Amino acid sequence: MEGLLHRVCNRFNPSTTTPLAELEGTLVSCREGRYLSGLVFQAPAKINLSLKIHGKRADGFHEIESLFVPISLADELTMEPAEQFSFSCDEPGVPGDERNLAVRAVQLFAERTNVEPRIRLTLSKKIPHGAGLGGGSSDAAATVLALNEFFGTALGMDALAAMAAQLGSDVPFFLYGSAAICRGRGEMVTPQLFNASLPLLLLKPPFEVPTPWAYQHWRDSRELPTISYAAQEFAWGTLVNDLERPVFEKFIVLATMKTWLFDRPEVSGALMSGSGSTLFAVLRDRGASPALAKDARAEFGESLWTCECETVG
């Protein structure tokens, strides 16, 4: 049992965790929390290498089929014992109530397991909000996994996935720690091997695209002339996103950015991730990111957020 306290943290293998103070961590009653020193979990972002919409369902959601792949960009979640529940985040404006998926995850977990969540939850944000990168969903999944470990409740994956699906369509994917084909509204997850480590540059302008809005406008949207929406075929898979059509129609700068990326010789493929507003470029060479990011900011403004990362599926 002592070895449990000294495992190395790897969020992409959800069975492992890291105590904050390895030499001081002590197991206590599972209903009070197993780690006196706390736990740290990584909550990775994702990109959608493909996103196909098959139509609107009777329940108002859309039937999708999408290849989700985790990337090396990640938030960090720290869970420590406390007298009562509290939540804090290093990013101003992140709500600390039910509007936050991580807080809702704590509430739901407590209801389902009958544990008293006497924890201090601290979130360090690296994934931008409203970016199509799944930051909030990943934070919620990491919270569920951390709670299951912290309180020793030993819930199986089926129970965790059912809880995650109640929190949000994308949340179940982040429990598995691998690439996956996601169907239904996104909650039906089939893990996939994805051995390609793709060097990426993420680009996000200073605005968000609400996911519900993108889906609501999908059916009646039109393609912009001169913009390529065609599937891009590679040895490792296909890049295609049906949500580019409504999003590009409203936010033309994103279409312009994609075309600009296509014209760059160091870019082998480019796509919007999820409902945006992040675009990602698949690079031919890992060393091309700094110069490409600099040129992108010169072209589209210094407020453009960029991030060098890679797929880890």
Short structural summary:
The protein contains eight helices and 13 strands. With 313 residues, it is of the alpha+beta class. Helix 1 runs parallel beside helix 2, helix 2 runs antiparallel to helix 3 and helix 6 crosses helix 7.
Feature tags:
26% helix, 8 helices, 9-stranded mixed β-sheet, alpha+beta, 313 residues, 13 strands
Q: Can you characterise this structure?
A:
With 313 residues, the chain is α+β, with helices and mostly antiparallel strands. It has helices spanning 101-113, 135-150, 157-167, 173-176, 211-216, 244-250, 252-262, 289-300, and strands spanning 18-19, 39-56, 62-81, 86-89, 119-124, 180-184, 188-191, 199-204, 232-234, 237-241, 267-272, 279-283, 305-310. The strands form two sheets. Strands 1, 2, 3, 4, 5, 6, 7, 9 and 10 form a nine-stranded mixed sheet that branches. Strands 11-12-8-13 form a four-stranded antiparallel sheet, with helices on one face. Helix 2 (135-150) packs antiparallel against helix 3.
